[in-house]
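User: Modeling request: complex.
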Amino acid sequence: MSRFVALAARGRSALPNIFDLIAFALIFGAFVAIVHGSRGMTLPLHAPQATAISLDYSNLPYYALRTTLRMFAAMIASLVFTFIYATWAAKSRRAEKFLIPMLDVLQSVPILGFLSFTVTFFLGLFPGSTLGAECAAIFAIFTSQAWNMAFSFYQSLHTVPKELDEVADSFLLSPWQKFWQLETPYAMPGLIWNMMVSMSGGWFFVVASEAISVGNTTVSLPGVGSYLAMAIDQKRIDAVIAAIVMMLVVIIAYDQLLFRPLVAFGSRFRFELSASQEEERSWVILLFRRTKWLRAVTGVPARLFQDVALWRLDLPIRANLSPAANEWKERVLDLVAVMIGGTIGIYALWLLSHFVVKSLTFGDIEQALGLTFLTLLRVLALILLASLVWVPVGILVGLNPRLAERVQPLTQFLAAFPANVLFPIAVVLIVRWALNPDIWLSFLIIFGTQWYILFNVIGGASTFPNDLREAAATFHVRGWDWWTKVMLPAVFPYYVTGALTASGGSWNAAIVAEYVKWGKDTVTAHGIGSYIAKATEAGDYPRIVLGVAMMSIFVILLNRTFWRPLARFAERRLQLT
Amino acid sequence: MLDTRTKPILEVKNVSQSYRTGSGEAGAQVLDNVSLRLTEGEIVGLLGRSGSGKSSLLRIISGLAKPTEGEVLFREEAVTGPYDSISMVFQSAALFPWLSVLANVELGLRAKKVPEAEARPRALKAIDVIGLDGFESAFPKELSGGMRQRVGFARALVVDPTILLMDEPFSALDVLTAETLRTDLLDLWVEGRIPIKSILMVTHNIEEAVLMCNRILVLSSNPGRIAEEIHVTLPYPRNRLAPEFRQLVDRIYALMTRRQAPAAPGREGTFPGLGLGMALPEVSTNTMAGLMETLAAPPYNGHADLPPLADSLQMAIDDLFPVGETLQLLRFAEFAEGDIKLTPAGMRFAEMDVDARKKLFGDHLLAYVPLAARIRNVLDERPTHWARAARFLEELEDYLSEDYAERTLKSIITWGRYGEIFAYDETSETFSLENPA
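Assistant: Request completed. Predicted assembly structure:
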């Protein structure tokens, strides 16, 4: 792409134009912000401004900046992780056997539950500096972003078209060249899409992980999340609203300046033979295309990258064993790998059970089991409720292309908005009207995740072939039949994808949503989420482990026995085309 | 047969290749003891039906795949992996969609660390030669199929290969585009404007082979063997309507439909052979019925010569042969020596109404396709009249690769449903005798 850009830029006059100016302003603004924001990251802990959060509105932009930087740091870490982990899994048959199931489990672990562990770990790593807490927060966001990106990349690497692979081999591309010329570009649309979904999910975690107290240690990093925590502590509803507004601004900026340009950029790499009818548009990309100087400037790193991508980096020629000897060697290595993996697994299991059994009784396990069941009920009931509302709405919106075009960006925006910023408002209402928290707090679980259902159903309905719609109309299929025999089966595959994402997010949200505070008032719902949250506050590590483990087991079971069979069914029976 | 005065550039010596079955063992052979030589200045065509292993052979020659037995020598050196002196043109062009035409063509050179100052003019020249001037900055998705394949040619030519390998490069294109591309390539070759020493092309199009090649190697199927070698001495440019040209095409049709010697009683029954391990092609019952109707009606009246039939139906041999062979397997037609002839059963079928057709088809299916009889037997014997598809798939995988086993099962399900010899439920993946009311 950079080559194309560089060629086109050469021909025109070299004077900068107005678009260069706007673009420069944007970029330099970003530079200044990064420098300004990152200076605060390495402050020693005892410096007063390091941890003191002020509710003064004028501090909010700075806090938002810090929050955003954390987000990007985590995104970079996730990208590096994705390239290494997914590539390793895709290239080594042996590593694949361990790495992929591990990723699958990691994906099901409610990250927020482990915040207490990572905070203590990172604080110990950088004693006396905010860097430890900073790393812990970044790590928490990282764990919410990395897994699905790695999965997407891994899957793309496995589905590189065979002929392109043969082209690369027959032109003697080295593995390094193949990675950058073929595999990464091919994986790009999926990776970018997952990056964006991850980022959207990440706002929730960044808010939740900035202010955390584990036992007696309280860490609050400058950021919107800490600002919000402070506002809650001091019962300042005006500050809560200010935080909500700030978050709105940040998400809009993120959506316009990053999400849309990147998705538009990613469409270039889509593997298709004909130009698709709809182009993703982004004013930022249009602006960039109209600049002259800026494109020339970006040509430099682009060229550099291109050169790096063309390095051969040939490995020393591997020992050329005869096929028979090779097979024998492979088997031995397989055995060794299984043994090592097995030993580590057994040791970890022993360690875990030791840790839990030593300080917990059977009663604790029973209690955790019961509470997890309650949360499970809550999650399923709310997914059902959200589906009842959003599926019909999504179908009606999706069938109207002009409406869908307007609503779709809004749902993406709503999915990115961290719902936990809104929690205090809910608490105030619950306290005011003395509502039953077991029922009313439940809605918070689905608050941020329901949009995935709406989003996917709109997407499904808007791709519904016009022929089928007309066929249904010709045969006078109306009312109940129209819903059950035409539209619901048609959007079902999309619905499953959305509901699966919503379900995964809801478990995590439960940790924050079942135990909410307003000053000294605490509103608690019965469930494993509040169990983990309370244990975290008390610094009760065995119970945190028990709660998180129990929740993970339920999530994995729910995925394996419910969502995946449903997704398989949808794929086999209901996929159009 | 071989010109002994010139040394071969490429030699394939006793190459064999086998599929892996579902259980991972070496299964049916794809290629059986294939040897060939390629000398300077010739275009050689590998002509065969699907299942003749012609694409596998091309990949072995290019170093992309390794043979189970035998070896490939390039200028007397053994080939162990992809090498510099060959380049390949793919059926689907296989361009990188994120690279411009120029970048696609340059890629092979840049990968070899040819400096940009040298690579750029070479790429531009190749683009010019192949007739793509003006499209350098276009992206593949902006181009038509024919233009894309031209980029494929430019990309293959720019690295100055000694041998150009082509894997059915014209088969994905429409008739007119394919013809222009063929003649353009032949012109370049005849006028010596491309520095290639020899071309080896895979095709299933008989006319294309006769139009382009100096030598045609006809491969037999299952496993692939070189059945015949035909020298084409007609001068370029060749005229499709010339009697010599037509004669040669007829002769090759006859060669390719020649009744094969009965297969050795091995595990992989040669199709049409006997036994459960018979790989069945995916042929729709509609196509079969359509072909029988066409053959029964005038002007054919039950008997047709294949080349004109293929022409009038606009079917390549890869489409036509499986249909003919399936009809032969079901004893609805005889298919030999470049001819197809309906049997009395086939003639009757063409005149029947739908229900009678289904009945006759079902009877023939049970009588002549062992897998159909096997499924029906199992269902009859069981008191529940019910059986899982997986058990038959496993049985098939003892003989066939996973892909072929699945395709065979899919075919038998379609044919069995049409003949109403059993029912199949997709959700539970089971066979049964129940007919949905």
